[in-house]
Write the structure tokens for this entry.
Amino acid sequence: MKYLSYKIVIVVLLCLSACLSSCNEDKGNYDYIDIYPVLIGDIGDNYTGTIGEKLFITPRLRFLRGPEDTVDISQSMAEEYTFTWYYYTGSTRGWQAIAEGRNLELDIAGIFGKPTEGAPYLLAYEVMNKEGVPYRRLFNLLVSTPLAKGYVALCETDDGFDIDMIAYSSNNNTLTQYKNILDISESDLPRKGVKPIDILTFPDAMAPNPFAVEAAKYSVFILTDQYTTRIKSTDYSWSSSYDISNQIEAKSYLDTEYIKKGKPIIVQKMRIGYGNTGNASQMYRTFIYVKDADGTGNWYITTNWPAWFLFSVQMNRSERPLGDHRYEPAPYIAVGNQGSMYYDTDTKTFKLGMFNTSPSDMGNTEILYYTKTLLETPGGVFNFSDPNTGLVYMNERQSSGSVTAPYAILNQANGSYKYIEFNLNTTEQNITNPGTTYKKRACVFPSSSKIGTAKFFASAPYVNSPWLFYVTNDNRVYKADIAGGTAVETDITSSIVSDGYTEITAFKYMTPNTFAAATAVAITAPPAPIQLSLVVGTYNASKGKNEGGKLECFLMNEQTTGDLTLAKFPAEPTTDGYQIDMSWTGLGRIVGVDYKQK
């Protein structure tokens, strides 16, 4: 095809009489300006980016003066052009300018801070000459997230909270630190002036909206002093439909006393448990502890086996026909595969709640929604009915992704403390059996022990391990050997606290649900250093809430001594020499931490 040069004729029109005069006197007197097309090269059709990183694009720009005649546009020549990068919003706003300049340096954050689950982001590069003639190049941006797996730390900041993360990459087996994930993803979750309480992550078929499938079946719950809600696991976005108020049974106590009255449901504590139902896709149960305005507290449960139950009645009620009597429960429970243990603070006794174990029990709400006082068989290492003056703490020890032994710590009348360890996986008769199969051990802490002032507890994640760790209100850390009848305690604060990070704000082994294999979604357990680490958050007040947090992981390399040392990841250096200490600074003030699997 014969090449035709591009010309544009600029005609200046005056008034009609002047124009006519000009035409008579200066026939054919026009100004012509050469306009050459711009060729945009070195921009591909598809780009991939990773959240938290940058995308760089350096186009090659050329004039096209003929079929075989192109000239690169120099920097001085580029001054005759404007360069704009656009993003197609897909809405009534259409194309939105995101950057100016010949080259692109784009942060994969903000509007691009969400992974492309479906269609890619559509972008355009526009070069416009001074006459207003545009030349454009369209391309796609696929965004992946490095934030799917890893430690998620809920951090208090100067004006609210955010989530910092130590992300795990299964592709290259590395850990990478990220700050302010909610800011990166431009989450709409209200955070300014909100005080964070805790974060929990777990496989959940109802996530994030119980009435609409929106993403991976995985919950990331955020507990605060103003609301309790979920965020979307895949991109950390938020919608009001994710609020826990959408998981409340109609006409229940929570519905009539909170939802109908426009009061937010503030969850102080949340626990997750799984049952041995034989159905790997329907095993989870979620427990929440909510305090009413008068200071009384109640436990509620939602479950999807053998039928769907949303949060409704208070679990802390005595079994019928003794009466529908509510008792004041402790804010701690122990959850087993087929039962949960509560503590009645009024009578200082344990109450057992058993779960439905088959579809035939679906209509038996007395099994699901009522608890009963344990009737003891005398003898054994301890009795649940033994005298005590109050519960200090209750939880479960976990090993290899399953509950191996719930335990409780009780005040005694003589000022000492009693540790009991038991099993909740079968029936009431087995739980109260005097044999050692279900009543595993009892151990006494002397009255001189500091365990009564503990704010955190962590039991070693090994079967029948004799080690219990706790942190007191004055930030001292103790290791307790509970193998014998009397606990032997050692102050190990110096091995945990250092470099001005003197306040311990988080202290936990990951809960059993974190690494459960038979759960509502397929997940792969992380490497051993992560599974077996004691995760500790400390705070250096001199650095401020935005940067004063430190997250560290400790391993018990020698189970016979219970000694803790700073963990390394991976356990052995890779072929290229990669191995790091599991210690990160510069985080916000950590108030909650969990390991996110999806």
